[in-house]
Amino acid sequence: MNGERCGFGATMTDPRWLVDEMLGRLARYLRILGYDTEYAQGVDDEAIARRASEEGRRLVTRDRRLASRSPGALLVTSPYLLDQLRSVRAAWPSLRLAPAFVRCTLCNGELVSVRDDRGEGGSPSSHVYRCPQCGHRYWEGTHTRDIRALLRTLEATAPP
Description:
Oligomer: single chain
Strand content: 15-25%
Number of domains: 1
Distance between the termini: 28 Å
Number of strands: 7
Helix content: 25-40%
Number of helices: 5
């Protein structure tokens, strides 16, 4: 999260995702990549399929039965994040693998830049992003470095 938004904002052609509760970490990473990603928790299969259809979202699930009942759903079989991201990339080859850090990983809200001279919230720097929906704060640190490293690994191992 450097001072700028990295230029990876959503476009009109970007998919909007609905990820079921078996794929919470994948949902967070799709948000890190800048994608509008809703996370369905505690909702039955019928409601998830209906929501995906009504909201024009691509459903991503590990549930074979749900995937078979939902046209256009992406079935992800691996329990491992890198493999899950590879599956999404295989189904959507234009998936960006550079972190955008423009969406809240907790609630999917769009982050805004705020000045935090006091280093409030434990931030080591004065530049902070905040989610206006849930109030969560984000800043550049070791966690964002680790995220970038994981995504570089994915990019390096992606098929040409």
